[in-house]
Write a structure and sequence with these properties.
Layout (H helix, E strand, L loop, with lengths): L1 H9 L6 H30 L13 H22 L7 H12 L5 H16 L7 H18 L4 H20 L2 H12 L5 H22 L18 H28 L5 H18 L8 H9 L4 H20 L7 H19 L9 H17 L2 H12 L5 H18 L5 H9 L7 H6 L4 H4 L5 E3 L4 H10 L6 E5 L3 E7 L11 E5 L1 E4 L4 H8 L6 E6 L2 E10 H9 L6
Protein name: Chloride channel protein
GO cellular component, one term: chloride channel complex
Organism: Pseudoalteromonas lipolytica
C-alpha cells in the first residue's frame, strides 16, 4: 500500500521528500558501483605498476603488449555478450534518458564495466567518467524499475545516477549537477534540481570516504593574473576553440573511416596504435589525469610537453574513435592542462617572476572542456570547485566564452556527444510538448471516477448509462472488442431513440507518462486511454482523455 502511495506521489512534477530520498539512494548505488570499478582498476594496476596510472616504469615489451592484449580481451568479452549491446558512455545515456526515460540495458552496462576497466588498467587514453556515468545511470534505473516507479520519476533518478557518477569521478558535486542539467537533461527545473544535487553530494562523499578528497588537479598551484594578461587570454581562448573543433572533427573522421570494420579488427587496431604510442612516448599512456602530474613537474620543458600533447591527442582520438570503452572528459582535461601549461611559457613574459603555469593549465582545461562538450557553465563550475579560488573566475569566464564562441561561430562546432549520437542513429531530440508531458505520470491526471461493465449487451449498457451521471465515464469490456468507452451519441438522439457510440481505448500501464498518452492520441486529436495497474493488467485504475492532455499543454505547460 505504501508503495502505491509512493508511486502516486512521484507521478507529480514536484519536489518531495520521497523523491529526494530516492535521489540519495540512487547516488549511493552509483557510488558503490563506481567505487568497485575504481578498486578493480587499482588492484590490477598494483600488480605491475609502482604508481597508479604511471606506465613509464614498465619494460618496453610489456608496455607495448599491454594495450594489445587488453583490446583482444575487450573484443572477446563483447563477442560473448553480444555486439548489439556495445553502445556505451555518456552519449548512450543521453539517448536513453531522452527517448526511454533512462531505462538502461544490463548487458550493455556489464560491457561498460569490464571493457572500461580493461582499457584503464592497460593504459588506453580514455577517462573513467564514461563508465562511471553509465554505471551510475544503470544503478538508478534498476532502483526505479525494481520499485515500479512512474517513468517521469525514473528519468529524474537516472539523472541522479549520472550526477553521482560525475561527482565520484572528479570530486566535483556542483559541477556534476550543472553537467547533468546542461549536457544530459538539457533543462533547468527546480523539482529535479534538488534530488540531483543530493545524489551528487552522496556520490562525492561516498568516494571521498574510500579514496580521500585528494585530486590530481588539487596539486596545481594557483596565482592571480594581472589585467595585462587579458588580451592574451582572448587569443588563448580562440586557440582552444580551434583545437576543440579540430579534435571533434578528427574524432568523427576516425569513427566514420573505420565504421566498415567489424568490432574485432577495430579494437585490435586500437590496441596496436596504443602500443606504438606507448613504445615511443610512454608518458602519453593512461587517463587524462596522468598528464596533469607531468605538466606540474615539467612546466618549462616545452619540447617535452609538446611531444606528450601530440602523442596524447593521437592516443585519445584513436582509442575513442576505434571503440575502446571509456570517457572523453578525462583526456580532454589532460589535453587542456598541457595546452595551458604550454601557453604559460609564452605568457610568463607578461608577468616575469610570477608562477602562472598552474593558473593557465586550469584555464586551458576549462576552455577546451567548454568548447568540446558545449558545456561552458559546467566547465566554469569545475574550475571554481577544484581551485576554490575566486581570482580565477573572471579569467576563466573570458577564456571559456572566447573558446566557446570561436568554436561555435567561426567553425560551426557541435557537441561531440551530439555528433556521436547522430552518427550512431540514436535519437535525442524531442518536441517541447513531449518534453513537458514526460514530467507528469498518468496517475497524477487520470480520472478515477468511472464505472466498469464487463458486458456487450446493449440494453445493459443503456441501463448503466442511465444509472450514472453524465460526468462519470462508462468503460465496457468484452472479449471481442476489448475495452471501450460507451456514451450516448448526442448528435443522433431523438425522443424515441437513443444511440450509443463506442470509443476504442488503448491501454497504458501506471508507469507511463502523459507523453505516452499523447503519442497514442495525437493523430486523431480525440479519444482516451485507460490506465491499468502495472502489476495486474486486469485492474483498471483510471481514464485519461485527449481533452485533459490538451488542457495541460495549452494552459498549464508553464508549470512543468
Amino acid at each position: 500500500m505504501w508503495l502505491e502511495r509512493l508511486r502516486r506521489r512521484l507521478a507529480k512534477p514536484k519536489t518531495s521528500v520521497q523523491l529526494c530520498l530516492l535521489g540519495v539512494s540512487a547516488g549511493l548505488i552509483a557510488a558503490v558501483l563506481i567505487i568497485l570499478f575504481r578498486l578493480t582498476i587499482m588492484f590490477f594496476q598494483s600488480l605491475f605498476l609502482e604508481k597508479p596510472d604511471d606506465f613509464t616504469t614498465l619494460p618496453t615489451l610489456e608496455r607495448v603488449l599491454l594495450p594489445v592484449g587488453a583490446a583482444l580481451l575487450i573484443a572477446l568479452f563483447a563477442a560473448l555478450t553480444g555486439f548489439k549491446h556495445y553502445r556505451l558512455g555518456i552519449p548512450f545515456v543521453i539517448h536513453r534518458i531522452k527517448k526511454h526515460y533512462g531505462q538502461m540495458p544490463l548487458y550493455n552496462t556489464v560491457n561498460q564495466f569490464v571493457g572500461g576497466a580493461l582499457a584503464l588498467i592497460s593504459g588506453f587514453s580514455v577517462g573513467r567518467e564514461g563508465p562511471s556515468v553509465h554505471m551510475g545511470a544503470t544503478g538508478a534505473s534498476l532502483l526505479a524499475d525494481k520499485l515500479h516507479l512512474p517513468h517521469n520519476a525514473m528519468r529524474t533518478l537516472t539523472g541522479c545516477g549520472v550526477a553521482a557518477g560525475i561527482a565520484a569521478s572528479f570530486n566535483t558535486p556542483l559541477a556534476a549537477v550543472i553537467f547533468v542539467m546542461e549536457v544530459v537533461l538539457r533543462e533547468y527545473k527546480v523539482h529535479i534540481f534538488v534530488p540531483i544535487m543530493l545524489a551528487a553530494v552522496t556520490g562525492a562523499l561516498a568516494t571521498q570516504f574510500v579514496f580521500g578528497d585528494a585530486s590530481e588537479l588539487a596539486l596545481i598551484t594557483m596565482n592571480p593574473l594581472s589585467g595585462w594578461h587579458y588580451p592574451f587570454l582572448i587569443l588563448f581562448g580562440m586557440a582552444l576553440g580551434a583545437v576543440a573543433y579540430a579534435f571533434n572533427q578528427n574524432l568523427m573522421l576516425i569513427i566514420r573511416t573505420f565504421k566498415p570494420l567489424s568490432m574485432f579488427p577495430r579494437l585490435l587496431l586500437a590496441g596496436l596504435i596504443a602500443g606504438l604510442i606507448a613504445y615511443m612516448v610512454p608518458h602519453a599512456m593512461g587517463s587524462g589525469m596522468s598528464a596533469i602530474t607531468i605538466a606540474i613537474e615539467s612546466p618549462d620543458d616545452v619540447q617535452f610537453l609538446t611531444t606528450i600533447l601530440i602523442a596524447k591527442l593521437l592516443a585519445t582520438l584513436f582509442a575513442i574513435g576505434l571503440g575502446i570503452p571509456g570517457g572523453i572528459i578525462g583526456p580532454v582535461i589532460g589535453l587542456g592542462v598541457l595546452m595551458g601549461t604550454l601557453m604559460a611559457f609564452f605568457a610568463q613574459f607578461i608577468s616575469p617572476g610570477v608562477d602562472i603555469a598552474g593558473t593557465y593549465s586550469m584555464l586551458g582545461m576549462a576552455g577546451l572542456l567548454a568548447a568540446t562538450l558545449h558545456a561552458p557553465l559546467a566547465a566554469l563550475t569545475t574550475v571554481m570547485e577544484l581551485t576554490s579560488s575566486p581570482e580565477i573566475i573572471v579569467p576563466a569566464m573570458l577564456v571559456i566564452s572566447t573558446a566557446y564562441v570561436t568554436a561555435l561561430q567561426f567553425f560551426g562546432n557541435r557537441s561531440i556527444f551530439m555528433q556521436q549520437l547522430d552518427f550512431q542513429g540514436l535519437e535525442y531530440q524531442i518536441s517541447p510538448a513531449t518534453e513537458a508531458l514526460q514530467k507528469v505520470g498518468v496517475m497524477e491526471e487520470m480520472d478515477e471516477h468511472f464505472k466498469l461493465l464487463y458486458s456487450d449487451d446493449k440494453e445493459q449498457i443503456k441501463a448503466s448509462l442511465d444509472a450514472i451521471d453524465s460526468q462519470t465515464p462508462l468503460i465496457v469490456h468484452d472479449d471481442e472488442n476489448g475495452y471501450r468507452l460507451a456514451e450516448y451519441d448526442l448528435s443522433l438522439m431523438s425522443d424515441q431513440n437513443s444511440n450509443i457510440k463506442y470509443v476504442s481505448l488503448a491501454g497504458l500501464s501506471s508507469q507511463a507518462t502523459l507523453a505516452d498518452a499523447f503519442d497514442l492520441l495525437k493523430d486523431k486529436r480525440s479519444g482516451a486511454v485507460y490506465i491499468y495497474n502495472l502489476l495486474d493488467n486486469q485492474q483498471i485504475m483510471g481514464l485519461l482523455r485527449w481533452d485533459q492532455i490538451r488542457h495541460i499543454l495549452t494552459i498549464r505547460n508553464s508549470l512543468l
